[in-house]
Amino acid sequence: MTEPPQDITLLLEKLETGDPEAAALLLPQVYEELRRLAKRFLRGERPGHTLQPTALVHEVYLNLVKRPDAEWKGQRHFMAVAARAMRNILINHAKAHRAEKRGGGMARVTLIDHDPENKGTPCEFDLLALDDALSDLAKLTERGAKIVELRFFGGLTVPETAEILKVSPRTVKDDWQMARAWLFRALHEKG
Q1: Dihedral angle over CA of 179, 186, 127, 175, nearest 10
Q2: Residue ranges per domain, the chain?
Q3: Residue 171, SS3 per DSSP
Q4: What is the pTM of this model?
Q5: Beta carbons within 8 Å of 24's beta carbon, 6+ residues apart
Q6: Rounded Cα distance, 94 and 79, in Å
Q7: What dotted CATH number matches 108-191?
Q8: Was domain 1-106 assigned CATH 3.40.1550.10?
Q9: Residue 151: what pLDDT?
Q10: 108-191 and 1-106 share a CATH fold
Q11: Which of 22, 75, 90, 162 has the greatest CB tally within 10 Å of its CB?
């Protein structure tokens, strides 16, 4: 007999307090969404990538539930942090692969806007170049870089991003537009 679904926010609160059963109960509640996120990340990777969605989900999940300092603000926040963790794992994987190949086989990602109202053309970039550009953007505008992480890597909507950052949706839209333009320019200049 299957367990009935539980409130994810409640499970995250239990996880924060150290409830040993919370992690086991949480996984079935977030697994499919984590898997969709992993598939989206890996879709832009090179053919023959050694990391599979299931392995990425499990590695991220174990890292997240073992964080003693985590203060989860609900499911959207959990998924945004999961997206950042997936990004970091893929960056580390790409760096290791690049070191093995001495510069060859760069991982590529497609940078698109997850906003259905935007009909922009997707562009493909080297994952490590994108990571470097995002780090440079964070030096200029930390909030802009966080918005890119939440929207692009986390797949969050403008209202969800605004809620997590505690700013207005208009601010998120303006910063998102500026950050995207800055990233596109920076990535095109690097080739």
Answers
A1: 0
A2: 1-106, 108-191
A3: helix
A4: 0.68
A5: none
A6: 22
A7: 1.10.10.10
A8: no
A9: 85
A10: no
A11: 90
- Angle, helix 22-43 to helix 8-16, in steps of 10 degrees: 110
Q: What is the pLDDT of residues 25-54, one digit of tens each?
A: 999 999 998 998 888 777 766 666 677 888
Supply 185's token pair. Answer: 């320019």
Which tens digits make up the pLDDT trace of 12-23?
989 888 887 988
Q: Per the structure block, which two tokens stand in for 47? A: 């053919």
Per-residue pLDDT tens for 98-129?
Answer: 665 544 544 455 554 444 444 444 455 567 78
CB 131 within 8 A of CB 145: no
Residue whose tokens read 């986390």 = 154
Q: CA 46, CA 29: separation in Å to the nearest integer?
A: 30
How far apart are the C-alpha atoms of 134 and 186, rounded to whole Å? 9
